[in-house]
Amino acid sequence: MLATIKSAAxxxxxxVSVLVEVNAGESGDPRLIMVGLPDAAVKESDDRVxxxxxxxxxxxxxxxxxxxxxxxxxxxxxxxxxLPIALGILESTGQMTPHDRFDRYVIAGxxxxxxxxxxxxxxxxxxxxxxxxGLKGAILPIKSAQEAALVSGIEIYGVKSLDEAKRFxxxxxxxxxxxxxxxxxxxxxxxxxxxxxxxxxxxxxRAIEVAVAGGHNLLAIGPPGSGKSMIAKRIPSIMTTPxxxxxxxxLQVQSAAGLSHQWDSLDRRRPFRSPHHTISDVxxxxxxxxxxxxxxxxxxxxxxxxxxxxxxxRSALEVMRQPMEDGCVTISRSAGKVTLPCxxxxxxxxxxxxxxxxxxxxxxxACSPTQIQRYRSRVSGPLLDRIxxxxxxxxxxxxxxxxxxxxxxxxxIRKRIHEARDIQKVRYAKDAFSANANLTESAIERNxxxxxxxxxxxxxxxxxxxLSARAxxxxxxxxxxxxxxxxxxxxxxxxxxxxxxxxxxxxxxxM
Length: 511
Ligand SMILES: Nc1ncnc2c1ncn2[C@@H]1O[C@H](COP(=O)(O)OP(=O)(O)O)[C@@H](O)[C@H]1O
Ligand SMILES: [Mg+2]
Ligand SMILES: [Zn+2]
Known about the structure:
Layout: E1 2-11, E2 14-26, E3 32-35, H1 40-43, H2 45-55, E4 64-70, H3 82-92, E5 105-107, E6 110-111, E7 117-118, H4 123-132, E8 137-141, H5 142-148, E9 155-159, H6 162-169, H7 202-214, E10 218-221, H8 228-234, H9 244-256, E11 272-273, H10 281-285, E12 286-287, E13 292-293, H11 295-298, E14 303-306, H12 314-326, E15 328-333, E16 336-341, E17 345-350, H13 369-377, E18 389-392, H14 398-403, H15 410-427, H16 441-447, H17 452-464, H18 469-485, H19 493-501
Parallel strand pairs: 3-4, 5-8, 8-9, 10-17, 10-18, 11-14, 14-17
Antiparallel strand pairs: 1-2, 2-4, 6-7, 12-13, 15-16
Helix pairs in contact: 2-3, 4-5, 7-15, 7-18, 18-19
The chain binds adenosine-5'-diphosphate, magnesium ion and zinc ion.
Magnesium ion (MG) binds near residues 228, 229 and 307.
């Protein structure tokens, strides 16, 4: 007898339909045959499934049984087919009489040997797929169901075990659909890390605030211990709270990478990713035999922190350029082409020199000018091109750390950033972009006008600081953000002079 169950496969961060067909009662040796491009984890499914069946009080098939995962040309990955396979076996061996509700849900889940369900990657994507296919909903392990329930307009059921799924599908007992977790609105959540822990560093904090307010990428240069990592980690706490739509995008990526179902809560946070500089191109961009998200996508709608920027392979920095331009990355592999989102704020950090102590009170620099030059030139070029704000930060002395006052809280800073962002949203309501960092050249002309006096000052600064031509537009965009933070509808002289200070690294002599 043939049983068919609707399931799905992950392709990047999206789900595509998979049909699980189980045919028991075939003539021939009693064995299980699995077809339809299963990977190793899927093939091992029969061991888990047989044990789960036995431990839930069911029989395994006594006849030759074929399991087909259709379509046959799509690679199937991971243990998520355990639950649909087990249910298919129950039906095709006559151990279960499904209610007509069977057909209307996407079903996925890993099974433990005891028959309990385990969460799977892509719960959220499966829910979105079920909705797109016009199905009633999805049946998933509890943890996967919690995130799936964020999708409105469909029913999501979380099941604890194979037996529970079976009884529900037989119409034996009713489960309550999972409640959408729409609570925890703006400002009611705590991020955990707060800017009030950061003492002193007024200029550094200010540069961060400007960067976040306009969506500008930032590079921090400072000796070890100057708080670069500490501050970078706190940036998501001052970014605007993600809208539900933005949060679903974040979650969809995290879910496809198998991260979200390990979280304790689904608070609307933005991600902070901090890949090590030895990371491979695939780790950074995404990919693999079944293309999955890399660090730039895991940072989507949040922060990508590249600590020790000059240590990253040059190729890694170069391959990031196009995705940063586009806000998405396309990966082609034999298993297919997928596009993943990667709209992030880049925060990079570096020491001022190879030893780290150039210009520092904490230690003496032992580097030669050539070494310093070589070190800094590693970050010139493609990536530096995308960074609007440079900030040089000293390390605080122990005395300063002891006596400096607590800093402003993240909530206070976030409020100002919200206001500056709202101004930009209104101003760019008809444009394709919504933040100053993304202004096109013509948009800069329209929105960043300066007086002739200011123009002369800028020209002067360009020459005396030997700034590159590229720096010109960056200064105007950053000045626009500084004006929005005030708020001021016009860019004024003091906005411009502050913006000029944030170009310390692209003086031609130094890079
Ligand atoms: N401005 C600061 N306020 C409070 N603590 C600081 C500050 N700067 C540094 N620290 C302390 O020094 C530690 C090391 O800072 P870290 O962020 O790792 O520096 P970096 O990344 O620049 O090397 C921090 O974890 C923190 O305890
Ligand atoms: Mg650090
Ligand atoms: Zn040095």
